[in-house]
Amino acid sequence: MLAIFLKTLPFFALIGLGWAAGRLRVFPEAASEWLTRFVFYFALSAMLFRFAATLPLADIFDARFAAAYLSGCLAVYLLATLVARARGRPVTEAAVEAQCAVIGNTGFLGVPMLTAILGPKAAGPVLMVLAIDLIVFSSLITLIITASREGKVSPRIGGVLALGLMKNPMIVSMAAGIAFSAAHLPLPAPVEEFLTLLGAAATPCALFAIGASLVSKTAERMSVAVWLSTAKLVLHPLAVAVAALLVFGVDPEAAGVMIAAAALPVAGNVYILARHYGVAPQRVSASILISTMASIVTVSLVIGWITGG
């Protein structure tokens, strides 16, 4: 376990460095926003495109894998929704809390960390997890909140969802990479070197940006934030593990990547959605802060378990 912890420590140390830089105002909030944009639109997109373009389709999409991950996610999503409704929270807030319980920081933290620690074989499964998070659950929360506010599901929502997906560079880069792979086209050497060089900036910049963004997060509504962090760091990977290993019989190595991805802390894009819709942004902010701090230990434990460490 110590060896696994020491492997994950540099990744969290970069997050800590970003937090310290933001806290000391060496790296202001505006700089964090622009660094995040660089990662989102360029560095991470280059990394995702290269992974998708150089992997066989069978390594990226597996129906049993997708069914297992979706089943585990939906179980925790439903539980978080029921708990929120039992507390008397409206449907919109319940949807945001459910999002906190199942959407991890797969793009900025999971892709670079898991492929580095678990090896290149982790790229396909982690891309699949990221695609499901972005396509299924980003669409689901938009659908629930919009329908709740309008009192119905209108055809206009379909256009909103489609436009949102097409404007997400992570989805576009993965889709383009998959199309490239399906066409069996080799990446020209200069192009691959360019993508490798640009993609290499994703890991340090993404982790630093995560840390810097935590400075603006607050720890209000602690009891709810602790519950949501527990759901994300403990219940989510547990539900995914049961679905993958006991119900759907997913390949153990792919299942391990899926479980590790499920153990990641609450994603920053949940806060962006909460702020965009004006639904419980402080609650989400606290959940991101607490889950990220706790994940220094919990992610190491999960990776140690799946690797037999």
Characteristic key phrases:
single chain, 309 residues, mainly alpha, 15 helices, globular
Compose a concise summary of this entry.
The chain has 309 residues and is an all-alpha fold.
Query: Helical stretch count?
Result: 15
Low-confidence stretches: none
> How far apart, in Å, are the first and last alpha carbons?
5 Å
Largest sheet: none
Q: What sort of overall outline do the alpha carbons produce when their principal axes are compared?
A: globular
Specify the structural class: mainly alpha
Question: If you average the pLDDT, what whole number results?
Answer: 89
Strand fraction band? Answer: under 5%
Cα-atom radius of gyration: 18 Å
What level of helicity do the residues show? over 70%
The number of distinct β-strands equals 0
How do the helices and strands follow one another from N- to C-terminus? HHHHHHHHHHHHHHH
Could you characterize the architecture of this molecule?
The chain is an all-alpha fold. 82% of the residues lie in helices and 0% in strands. It has 15 helices and no strands. Helix 2 packs antiparallel against helix 11, helix 4 packs across helix 5 and helix 14 runs antiparallel to helix 15. The longest helix is centred in the middle third of the chain and has 28 residues. It is globular, with a radius of gyration of 18 Å. The chain starts with a helix and ends with a helix.
